Amino acid sequence: MSGQTSKWREEQILVICPGSQTTMAQLGCGELTPPVHRFPTRMFKDDESDDWRPYRTYKRKKAVSTPSVSNGASNATTTATAGATANGAAAKDEDEWEYVEDTDSVEGAVYPIRAGRIANMDAFLAFLDHVHGILTTTYHNTPIMLMASPQWTRPDCEAIARYIFEKTRTPALCLINSGIATQYGLKWPNMTVVDVGFEKVDVTCIYESQVVSHLDVGSYPGPERDVSGGEVFTRKLASLLKAKGFDYEMAEQLKKNPICEVLPYAPDTPELMELPADTGDGSKIVAPIADIDDGLNIDGKDVEDEGVLDVANIVVSGQTREFLAKKEKEKAERAKAGRKAKEREGNEAAAARTARLPNSKRPWNVFHYEELVTEEVPVAAPVPAPAPAPAPASIPAIAPTPAGIENSTTDVTMGDASGATTGTAPEAATATTAPIEGSAIDVAKPEPSADQQQASVGSEAVKPEEAKAEAPPAPAAPETAQLTEKQTKRVRRDIEIGIERFLFAERAEIDRIVTAIYRAVQGIENMYMRPYCWENIVFVGNGTRIRGLKDNIMQTLQARHLVSPSSATMFTSELPSNLGTPSGTGSQTPTGSFTGAPHQLPTTSSVNPLLQAATTASLGIPGGPAAVAAAAAAAANANAPGSNAGDASSAPSHHFHSQTPTTIKLAQLPTYLSEWTKNGFEEAMFLGAQVAARLAFCIHNLDVQGLESQRLMSLTRIDYNEHGPKAIRSHSMLG
Amino acid sequence: MAQQTLSSAMPPTDIYGGDEVSALVLDPGYCQTRAGFAGEEMPKQVIPSFYGHIDGRDIFGDEVILPRANFEVRNYMNRDSVVEDWDGATKIWEHLLCKRLQPERPTPPSKNGLNIGDGDGDGDVSMEDASGGGAENSVGDLEKPLAENPVLMTEAPWNSAKAREKAIEICMESWGCPAFWLSRTPVLAAFAAGKATALVVDVGGANTSVTAIHDGTVLKRSIQRSPIGGLWLSNQIRSMWETSDPRVDLVPTFMVENKKPVEAGAPAEARLRNFPFPIAPSFRAFEEERVLTEFKESVVEVWRGPGRFQPNEDYAKSQPGRVFEMPDGSNQMWREQRYRVSEGMWDDTVAFDQHEGRVAKSQTIPGLIKAALDGVDVDLRPNLVGNIVVTGSTSLLNGFNDRLNQELTNMYPGLKIKIHAAGLTSERRFGAWIGGSILASLGTFHQMWISRKEYDENGAGIVEKRCK
């Protein structure tokens, strides 16, 4: 049995991209979709054994002996009995004790990855096992594509390889560097990947699919770690709004809201941004959030709401088809309504338009804060029909909520800004009696329309079926006959936020990222690679979803570091320093010295024409229209004086000794993957991991060279058996 | 993991334990410290030997060197590339070998993840409120961190006996290494070039050395060194900028908030940053060095001939110049000056005056090579001149090899001269490390190194006896 012949099917491949907060995973890489599953990257230590559990599990007295349960888990939002979740460990003391698995609690959580580093290997391996167990159905033949942070050390990677091959039946494992994964997702051969994560920022420079420079911020080992990344902004926001009673959760939610924005870099203003002036009363009139000039918010809402449709209810009541039809209709109606609303808006008085300033120009904006509040309330009536044991309640995305109108969720609206809460009661009523209808109404809701907002900020807040995807509210198991049960309410509050929503973007933090990018690219040893890396910068990581952050970083880079074409070379025939010298001996041409390079296999055929032109230009094909065009392209590209382009095109090699950067540009993102365009390329590494998985595991009919590089992309069980865990050093895509 | 519950159809034929751990290679220099695993092509970790000192704590790595209050920059090496500050050396090496190359060690059970509130022990302590003293014993109070990794360390050929003993002590006592070896940088650089006999010309950051290697050993009498390395060249540039008209101001990048394009030779129009705290001179000097490095990379060239620079200055003026834009946006064309700054490496009469005094003729590169060759047996000289290995970052100056070849041809007209200079930038920069990586991954290295047992029996003095 040879490694080359045993290829796998695309739907068999397990792709896992672990992050320090969320892990993206999915079985199959055929469709190149955004991640199907997102797991919180955390584990819980079992109190009694040394095992790890994916959810907080605790023991509590059975309700029989203590009618009014107060088990100390006051923050727990949902509970499920041991029986329902097939928790086998609860064998002893059956009569008195029960085990409760709380899928939402973070009490006692261990986060195995911290700022990219594996802080707790045991927990991480247990977590991998958990993900693997949930997603794989067949018990064998599922190769794993696992994304590794640049901070993972060699012993880490070996420990993971060893665990996977010894504890699972995985036939092959591919570890891929997160920067390389991003690069595979975006398909540029040279790029600088800036990955803004939860607590760290990674800058990885890639030249021809090789990592040529890397710097990280915020993942300093040891207690001096100075956190960077998205977390810094949340903390800052929380501290700025402390006076308003904001806690961390609220700040986190606000940060994700589009009213929170990093203003453009304004080089001449004292604060380096143009804060809207607080004109006093007029502009303070509440400006509805839906007005904001992009669809970000709306999109997000749509997705979320549709995501929480009570699938179980629909299926149970057997109305699936009707429901779907109805929903389609509603969708169409909604679209129509939206269009109408817009038209209406257009016809409205100009006065209204002035009030509709973009977020960045307003000193105030309203933030709709939603929180889940759990409280103990007495159960009104004995609960009938027990919930059908919710199958793996742990799959967050599609966890079914148990059927029944006795759903423990009610809705409360607390509008503190302005809000007629009158509409709440009847709607809530309908919601509880007819869940399906309720959810349909809900779906239709977040449509932005000018008239709706002012009147009923409050009533809009009603979410009949609010259950967050991760929080399926399960009624307490009936047999315990508790007198109280937990109720989760979604409470919505409107809070006016001033310029704090711009000030949270600390200059110091942005400067840190900017400096890291500058040093990483300028730290590339081979100078000729630097321009390519400057011209293809890409921001990934969900930290860059903060509105305006990317732009601000780019603007800062350009204002601070860009080298302009000098007037000293403009009118002379001198060689400017931003073009290559024609003096190469060729001895430094970097050919072939790299070994084991995971080459871009045939699927990556799209090459930047400009890049290609520039390369051919430096290779110096004399004469010919191609060379001329290439020279022109190179000149345009480098923004260099045209008179020197000829010199450059006659340069024989990569002998490049020029000051950089002369251009700083974002890499273009692919447009042909509509799902990813919608999802945003912040998670491009997941896309790239899928692409790489296909290359490593699925492509056959390769030539000899292709086969060899494919063999080195992943570690098969055969190679593992022969060489042991150390083979992962060479058989991987760790850059 | 003793118990092996393999469920696969094809279980591993062997149980793989910690026996596959390879040696670590540590190459400390004045400008950079490089560390990685033996057998790899490149060092995994390259950080400045300069480290930050803030409020009683030491922090390492390029990313932490940022303008902050009470922040100063230190270096644990001295200009001779010998460790001076052993406390700092231990910490920076530990940072590289134990924290960057090895996984984070599990926290003791007393404070493992079970009591996570916020920021307990493993992180989350922000710069401002972290109290000093936590870092010092972070490795010390755990089990020996490198109990499984042999360490190969490099040293300058003129390293003192005391420093060598100190190095083995740290490895054996503090880190619990099972084996240790100390090797001299020129030997390793020759090794990386595939030569056992060579004349190694190492043009590094803090100094330049010329050493003859014969059959893998340093010929002690040949060792020559002078300060004309990267820092010396930086000072030449500073002198040139100070004396040029108009004077060129060196404003390091961190001072600049943003800049506007200006005409060549025009004053800069940049907005400078204001810091509410004083900037330590050591930090500023470190940052200035970045600008100077960029200038060296993109402007400075070695005069390739014909002849030396001095009689050809007028011709040099007609050569294409290069523009350099300073971090504050001011820019100007550099013509013959860009050859002149580096000419002092070859011709002491052209060098700019520096505060540390002028170089002597014997300290130029031709002078060093002559002295080195004069120090060895006449019969060895042809073999050495035919195997010249050029290494060190400063040798990456444009035109360096051409000039070296020319100088040697003039000095030794009768001998066959062959210069070996790695084509890849990184190979030139990390020559000694790569040599160490090759050496430590050889099977024979296991018979060579000083084992823990030998150390226990003989004490630190063994390193003088063994690592000749």
Automatic annotation (TrEMBL), chain A:
Residues 63-97, 327-356, 409-432, 446-488, 571-602, 639-661 are annotated as: Disordered. It comes from the Eukaryota. Residues 70-90, 419-432, 580-596, 639-653 have a biased composition (Low complexity). Residues 327-347 have a biased composition (Basic and acidic residues). It holds the Pfam family Actin. Belongs to the actin family. This is Chromatin remodeling complex subunit. It comes from Lasiosphaeria miniovina. The lineage of its organism: Eukaryota, Fungi, Dikarya, Ascomycota, Pezizomycotina.
TrEMBL record, chain B:
It holds the Pfam family Actin. Transmembrane segments: none annotated. SUPFAM superfamilies: Actin-like ATPase domain (SSF53067). The keyword Transcription regulation applies. Coiled coil: none annotated. Residues 102-141 are annotated as: Disordered. Signal peptide: none annotated. The keyword Nucleotidyltransferase does not apply. One of its GO terms (cellular component) is nucleus. Component of the NuA4 histone acetyltransferase complex, of the INO80 chromatin remodeling complex, and of the SWR1 chromatin remodeling complex. Belongs to the actin family. ARP4 subfamily. This is Actin-related protein 4. It comes from Lasiosphaeria miniovina. The lineage of its organism: Eukaryota, Fungi, Dikarya, Ascomycota, Pezizomycotina.
